[in-house]
Specification:
The protein is an all-alpha fold. It is 75% helix and 0% strand. It is built from 11 helices and no strands. Helix 1 packs antiparallel against helix 2 and helix 4 runs antiparallel to helix 5. It is globular, with a radius of gyration of 14 Å.
């Protein structure tokens, strides 16, 4: 609990390596359900959403990595939408950092389970399809296809 609170403070540090380190630790701590809940309760989602626009690509990748785990939780999906994260995730589909794009695709796949988010993500369906079809990275291609199918799924 205190660890997550302290890591949240480091998300705003001026040193990029510290921001990245804090994001990576939150990613590890948010693998388990309790960690996801604590990350949401300690308001890390809006900070992580902000870091999706960090000038350092490693920080962006790490921030989305944490959000990829947190958005498995429904409260995490809602918190990300409220923080303007949907738009930022769609922008990161064009990031030059492949790990960042992979984490983004996974986060979109998770968040899309929320009907309101799925509606918002529809506009990035062509980009997800493009990544699925053209990526030389098989893992990225597979996850992009899963996200594409989730986004375009009709109830």
């Amino acid at each position: 609990h205190h660890a997550i609170k302290n890591l949240a403070l480091l998300l705003e540090d001026e040193e990029a390596p510290l921001r990245q380190w804090a994001c990576n630790n939150l990613m590890c701590l948010s693998i388990l359900d309790d960690g996801k809940q604590l990350c949401i309760k300690e308001h890390t989602v809006p900070l992580l959403a902000q870091l999706m626009q960090d000038e350092e690509s490693a920080v962006r990748a790490a921030a989305v990595g944490a959000l990829m785990n947190i958005t498995v939780d429904n409260d995490g999906k809602v918190a990300l939408m409220e923080a303007g994260g949907v738009e930022r995730l769609m922008e990161l589909l064009y990031d030059g950092n492949e790990i960042c794009v992979l984490n983004t695709v996974k986060a979109i796949g998770n968040t899309t389970e929320h009907p309101k988010a799925r509606e918002m993500f529809l506009e990035c369906a062509p980009r997800l399809k493009e990544i699925a079809d053209l990526s030389e990275n098989k893992t990225l291609g597979q996850h992009a296809l899963v996200a594409y199918e989730a986004v375009t799924w009709v109830p």
